[in-house]
Amino acid sequence: MSVFPIRFLTLAVIAFHSNSFAASGQEQQLFLLIRQLDTLDTLVQSTPRFEAPESNARYRFDYPRLTQDIQHIRQGVKDYLSPSRAQPRDPNELVGDYRLDAAHAEPWP
């Protein structure tokens, strides 16, 4: 299991929450964030689908949940950049817990 996707997502979220740039610069940063999320999604999708868990591994990484959160973040940024009306807030929160119990883990399709 690689920690690269987690580090990449963390850096993307930090860049998103930075308030040190102007409005036009902020939009450029958000477009960059969407590209980074696309790259991260590609990396996650290219991970081995049927990774055999290690015999002593208690947990596995929950890639489907990470993919859902990436899509959720991407959609939120796109909605911000091109709002259809007043700025509604999505009440759904990111799960953030990507650790699966190996005994109850579903195979990644």
UniProtKB/TrEMBL annotation:
Leader sequence segment: 1-22
Keyword field: Signal
InterPro entries, per the entry: Uncharacterised_RAQPRD
Pfam families: Plasmid_RAQPRD (PF09686)
Highest taxon in the source lineage: Bacteria
Protein name: Conjugal transfer protein
Source species of the chain: Pseudomonas frederiksbergensis
